[in-house]
Amino acid sequence: MSLSIPKPVSAIPVIGRAALSFWSKSIFMTIGILAGCPVIFHLHAGAFPEFYDAECGKLRKRIVRFFLDRAACIIVLSSAARAASSCAFRLRIC
Predict the structure, then answer these.
(1) What's this model's pTM, rounded to 2 decimal places?
(2) CA dihedral 86, 88, 91, 94 (to 10 degrees)
(3) What are the two backbone dihedrals, phi and then psi, of residue 67, each rounded to the nearest 5 degrees?
(4) What integer is the mean pLDDT of 52-74?
(5) Lowest-pLDDT range, 44-48, 72-76, 81-85?
(6) Residue 5, exposed/middle/buried by CB under 10 A (0-12, 13-18, 19+)?
(7) Is residue 38 part of a domain?
(8) Is 3 a residue whose pLDDT tops 60?
(9) What domain count does the chain have?
(10) In which domain, by residue range, is 80 found?
(11) Would you say 13 and 42 are in contact if contact means Cβ atoms under 8 Å apart?
(12) Residues 6+ apart with CB under 8 A from 85
């Protein structure tokens, strides 16, 4: 029986939605950031701008911005979501 040596990770894909999903996925984004590994954030919710505007106070907005600003790439599902997210957050969306 041989041991497998893990290969280095080239990127961490994170599929997130608004609210609780974002906060739970931020744990994986933190690991990627601390490890120096690029984080690819797949924004899987059209309601994300509403979550950011209505449910996040100043501190939470700063935390959301921290993670979104450090993502190597942000993927959205539609051109409408792309327009809404890029306007609301001034993001680099792939």
Answers:
(1) 0.78
(2) -30
(3) -70, -45
(4) 91
(5) 81-85
(6) exposed
(7) yes
(8) no
(9) 1
(10) 12-89
(11) yes
(12) 43, 48, 49, 74, 76, 91, 93
Residue 33 lies in a domain: yes
Type of residue found at 63: I
| pLDDT given for residue 14 in this prediction | 92
pLDDT digits (tens, 9 = 90+) for 5-35: 566 778 889 998 888 889 999 999 999 999 8
**Of 20, 85, 16, the residue nearest 44 (C-alpha):** 16
Instruction: Count CA atoms closer than 13 A to 93's CA, side-chain side.
Output: 20
Task: Specify the pLDDT at position 80.
Answer: 75
Distances (CA, A) of 48 to 4, 10, 72: 40, 27, 19
H/E element, 30:
helix 20-35
**Tokens, residue 19:** 């609210």
